[in-house]
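Write out the 3D structure for:
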Amino acid sequence: MLVENLPVPFDRRVWAEATTLTAAGYQVSVICPQGDYLQRFEVRDGVRIYRYPLPSLAGLAGHVIEYTWAVPVTFLLTVVVLLRDGFDVIHSANPPDLFFLIAACFKPFGKKFVFDHHDLVPEMCITRWTGRKRAVLQRLCQWAERATFRLADRVITTNQSYREVALTRGGVSPDRVIVVRSAPRLSHFHPVAPRVELKNGRAFLVAYLGVMGPNDGLDYLLRAVAHIVHARQRTDIQFVLIGGGDLHPELIRMSAALGVADIVEFTGRLPDEEVIALLSSADLCVAPDPRDVLNDVSTMNKIIEYMALGRPVVAFDLREARVSAGEAAVYATPNDPVDFAHHILSLLAAPARRSLMGGIGRRRFETMLAWEHQADHLLALYRDLIGDPS
């Protein structure tokens, strides 16, 4: 398994896939960035993890340096895995859509290639760049995406919207595409008793969990908080933002500039136990991802995790957000921080509705969305591709 975006086991989706395949009897090796982990190689829960140091630099030049380093190092480690452990399948997660270059080197030797489609990279270019730079990068990303789809023996997508992309834009036959949604395990993500002290003496706690990057809408959230504090004169709500990312330092500065730094806490990345405690103590959780060509068709992991803990959700009105949450969320006018603030305040004023929505979300998670419901799809793909290890 090749992943460049996040280290393992921090990347929950890749880790769930790896441990599920291992438990079923397959031998799994993962190559990934080192991140904050100390060990370059370890065996955890039966999964062999090979890590490498990866620079994280801002801007286009930073991405070029990052990928120029990551692709050849990943290739060399793939050779190491072949010699030490052996493999039948290269299972590549994106972004970037560049690991088809590695898979192409091994396909002549009978190795299969599974593309795990996490993000629409051409759409990411549209949302992050402008002008000629965007045009050039989008063409390159479209080329890499097409090449990846064409080389793949099987494609895994995270939702039906991405499946449609694989079928139409990618030209993949329907029998080679399967949906495996991202979700935590039932045994791992369950609510715990709320801790009042986490509200810092305020009446309410509103929580965000996730990446803090250009597409995640934290600027919209901070503007909504500023409206709540300054226009609506509410200082009885504690906001806690859990996670990290490229925009983390900039968002801290923005909260100070908007005059809300005293009620917005940035925790950085936390262990799962602390994340679960904070979310379980929250009166509601937020998903401020704005509507754009990427977010509208992408499944937000944070929403599933909120539902797993029985938390009601405020989100912008996005297609796949509605598919995930249904009546467990209320939906604000896309990209309108004032309306987002209105929905936060309205939901905080309705404790019975919050309880009802939280229950709906937890039931949807237990009966439809939890990883235990997705694992069978993953295993069916592998049994069809290379057989049952038993």
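Residues 153 and 376 are 19 Å apart (CA to CA).
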